[in-house]
Task: inverse folding
């Protein structure tokens, strides 16, 4: 079984990289405002873990909305950081690259709190798995941490806090804005982990 991880450079996918040690990691610059910081974080963790890292650049900025694209949220958005069909898009692009590298299993960095979006649910992951498995190559899609909170995932993966600090979770910029949902989650998780150590 050859595995690939869709690695955003955020806390969740970085922790899965540490925990599962995939054969390959794929990071995508799809036109999001924080792309360069996400790429830096992804490169750093892959270098430490000796994971074969691939970068895709596909400019979808014109299709985005909300915080990640630097525009107004779409009227259908459940939150200001919603980018229409983003997870479906990213998983498809990652699978397109992964299949050419002989990958049979693609891992997504979805965690329990992502269930606030339909594309962060087990139902969505199962549907995506069926869709890709139906096609040539029989790719399987899994979200190994979907039942875990981010703090639970970090603890399970035993990610050193100094390396967790490399994660970039900001939705709005390459330097953390400390105001978006991604930044808020990052600081909340760090605070919870630091309480554990006290």
Result:
């Amino acid at each position: 079984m050859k595995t690939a991880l869709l690695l955003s450079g955020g806390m969740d996918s970085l922790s899965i990289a540490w925990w599962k040690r995939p054969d390959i990691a794929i990071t995508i610059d799809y036109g999001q405002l924080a792309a360069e910081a996400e790429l830096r974080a992804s490169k750093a963790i892959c270098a430490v873990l000796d994971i074969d890292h691939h970068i895709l650049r596909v400019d979808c900025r014109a299709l985005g909305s909300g915080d990640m694209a630097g525009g107004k949220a779409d009227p259908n958005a459940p939150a200001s950081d919603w980018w229409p069909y983003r997870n479906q898009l990213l998983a498809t692009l990652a699978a397109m690259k992964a299949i050419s590298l002989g990958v049979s299993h693609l891992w997504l960095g979805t965690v329990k709190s992502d269930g606030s979006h339909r594309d962060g649910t087990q139902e969505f992951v199962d549907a995506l798995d069926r869709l890709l498995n139906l096609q040539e190559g029989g790719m399987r899609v899994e979200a190994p941490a979907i039942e875990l909170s981010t703090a639970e995932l970090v603890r399970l993966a035993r990610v050193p806090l100094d390396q967790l600090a490399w994660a970039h979770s900001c939705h709005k910029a390459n330097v953390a804005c400390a105001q978006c949902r991604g930044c808020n989650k990052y600081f909340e998780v760090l605070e919870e982990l630091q309480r554990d150590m006290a």
